[in-house]
Design a protein that fits this description.
α2 crosses α7 and α5 packs across α6. The longest helix is centred in the middle third of the chain and has 18 residues. It is built from 7 helices and 6 strands; from the N terminus they run αββααβαααβββα. By secondary structure, it is of the alpha+beta class. Helix content is 41%, strand content 20%. The protein is globular, with a radius of gyration of 17 Å.
Length: 181
């Protein structure tokens, strides 16, 4: 499965400094993100493999700072999408091992996997629970890089909204922790 971030995608990460952006492989493993993503979601650059995979983390009860409006629907779409990825990359050992481990350790994942549910990711609003600036309601869009099978997740807020103001504050704060005065 492709995991290489080409120069054009890297330029997107570098130039979109006022928008939280992250790049994932086809199986939802985080490959790279910009600084505002780290400020919003927490800097997880040290995580590798399964610990950086959205599907793995979700079925381990770790959705990070994201609160989904309908977690069950989100899980269905992740499993359906992962099943599609597994058919495109049948020789990917790491992917097969992760799916096997999820099927062995998580009955909810196993049930969804066996149901062969068809679901697709769509644009949706997500609440990010941030320890410094509070809840931030953002639109979440997923774009696919043609020919590279990468996914770019972008969070945006309507101009002038409270969420836009909170993103601006996070751009200044970065990953700093504000200590009580």
């Amino acid at each position: 499965m492709p995991r290489h971030i080409g120069p054009s995608v890297q330029r997107l990460l570098d130039r979109l400094t006022d928008t939280p952006v992250a790049v994932h492989d086809a199986a939802w493993t985080l490959l790279e993100h910009n600084d505002l993503w780290a400020a919003l979601m927490g800097d997880i650059r040290g995580r590798r493999g399964r610990e950086a995979n959205i599907v793995w983390r979700c079925f381990q009860g770790d959705t990070g700072r994201v609160r989904h409006r309908d977690l069950d629907e989100h899980k269905k779409s992740l499993v359906a999408d992962l099943r599609d990825v597994a058919t495109r990359y049948p020789a990917d050992r790491e992917l097969a091992d992760m799916i096997s481990a999820l099927r062995t350790s998580n009955s909810e994942f196993t049930q969804l996997w066996e149901e062969s549910t068809v679901a697709h990711h769509a644009t949706e609003r997500k609440a990010i629970v941030h320890p410094e600036v509070g809840d931030v309601e953002l639109d979440c869009d997923v774009m696919t890089v043609h020919g590279a099978d990468l996914r770019i997740i972008v969070f945006t807020a309507p101009p002038g909204s409270e969420a836009a103001e909170r993103l601006r504050l996070l751009a200044v704060l970065g990953t700093q922790t504000i200590l009580p005065g």
